Description:
This protein is α+β, with helices and mostly antiparallel strands. About 40% of the residues lie in helices and about 15% in strands. The protein has helices at about 10-15, 25-35, 40-50, 60-70, 115-125, 145, and strands spanning about 40, 75, 90, 100, 110, 135-140. Strand 4 (about 100) and strand 5 (about 110) form a beta hairpin. The longest helix is centred in the last third of the chain and has 14 residues, at about 115-125. The mean pLDDT is about 85.
Amino acid sequence: MGTTTLPGETLTDRLRAQGVRITPQRALIAKLLENARDHLDAESVYHMARRSDHRIHRATVYRTLATLKKLHLIDELDLMHVEGERHFYEVRPSTLHIHLVCLTCGSVQEPEGRFWESMKGKVFRETGFKPEIIRLEMGGRCSTCRSGKVRKGKNKIY
Length: 158
Ligand SMILES: [Zn+2]
Ligand SMILES: [Zn+2]
């Protein structure tokens, strides 16, 4: 635990540093995750990977994700289950951000900043527990849904 990120270090570098043999397919998966704008689930990673390498197997994708997760290089999120049982992955960020998941439209916002960092100190002061990893999700309603302008909720769950 306590993976430290050096500036300019890629996910592939970090995998290699952990003694994982870097195959072209593993490097491809790592790159996809690193460049992803959204939180991707395993199937999306698989389909994106297939666009670059049509020989890639689904099992390779799932195994690589499991390895990355085990080495604490990526985080697995359920995003309040707005997408059912799908799990999403993201490269563990160097700055803390949280996930604000809209329970109406499923959008995910990721504010980051000092406020969330200061939470670590607050938790420590109040409980004596020293947080190292924070993976925080909040479910609620985004400003668009609250304004009632858009009504295209894909799967309302509440
Ligand atoms: Zn919304
Ligand atoms: Zn995120």
